[in-house]
Specification:
InterPro entries: TNFR/NGFR_Cys_rich_reg, TNFRSF1A. Keywords: Disulfide bond, Signal. This is TNFR-Cys domain-containing protein. Pfam families: TNFR_c6. By secondary structure, the chain is of the alpha+beta class. It has three domains: 59 residues, Tumor Necrosis Factor Receptor, subunit A, domain 2 (Ribbon); 42 residues, Tumor Necrosis Factor Receptor, subunit A, domain 2 (Ribbon); 59 residues, no CATH class. It is 12% helix and 27% strand. It is elongated and about 65 Å long.
């Protein structure tokens, strides 16, 4: 009698092992709580079911005898992460003014939009953006307010501060500008004192 039970157990053992293997291959397993599921799984009806790969959506949940069934996203839609969503997201269309396509949409990733030359992508929130013209900085030399360049203070040409802020000056503009030599309003930047030529005037201007 004991031998018959042992033989019967031996016959059942391969079936039990096969069931365990099938359960793993099919991507589902019974667990006690949601915390037991891995990052590649999701919790449903007491089971840890396998998620769909990027580019695929879930069309049927898993069961105790069947894995999750997934379907590839159709053209113009995508899913860029492991998921169990029933629908794919619509791809973005680069139809905004001055927008261009940087990379096209695929089932695994959304379209990447950019802007034409001379514009940059200004993002307002997670879904809103626009192509905005790039602002250009222009250096200006103001007539009558520049000190005369000299070997003693060449750095004075880098700029001066006006009432509205910093004005940057290009060296090539300086010879074309009429100015008072050593204007008293300017300081010798290296010596920290007024220029010795502060009282002189250029072109007879009082």
């Amino acid at each position: 009698m004991f031998q018959i039970q042992v033989q019967h157990t031996r016959k059942l053992l391969p079936c039990v092992l096969l069931s365990l293997i099938v359960g793993v291959v099919m991507g589902q397993r019974s667990v006690s709580s949601k915390r037991d599921c891995s990052k590649e799984e999701y919790w449903t009806d007491g089971l840890c079911c396998d998620k769909c790969a990027p580019g695929f959506k879930l069309i049927r949940k898993c069961s105790s005898s069947m894995a999750s069934q997934c379907e590839k996203c159709s053209e113009g839609t995508y899913l860029d992460n492991m998921n169990y969503f029933p629908n794919c997201f619509r791809c973005e269309k680069c139809t905004k003014r001055n927008a261009v396509v940087i990379s096209p949409c695929t089932p695994q990733k959304n379209t990447v939009c950019g802007c034409q030359h001379g514009y940059y992508k200004k993002v307002f929130d997670q879904i809103s953006w626009d192509c905005v013209p790039v602002k250009r900085t222009v250096s200006v030399a103001i007539r009558g307010l520049l000190p005369k360049p000299s070997p003693r203070s060449p750095e004075i040409l880098s700029g001066f501060r006006s009432g509205s802020g910093q004005v940057r000056v290009c060296n090539e503009f300086v010879p074309k500008v009429k100015y008072e030599v050593g204007n008293a309003a300017f300081m010798d930047t290296r010596q920290g004192r007024r220029s010795r030529m502060g009282q002189r005037r250029h072109n007879g201007v009082d």
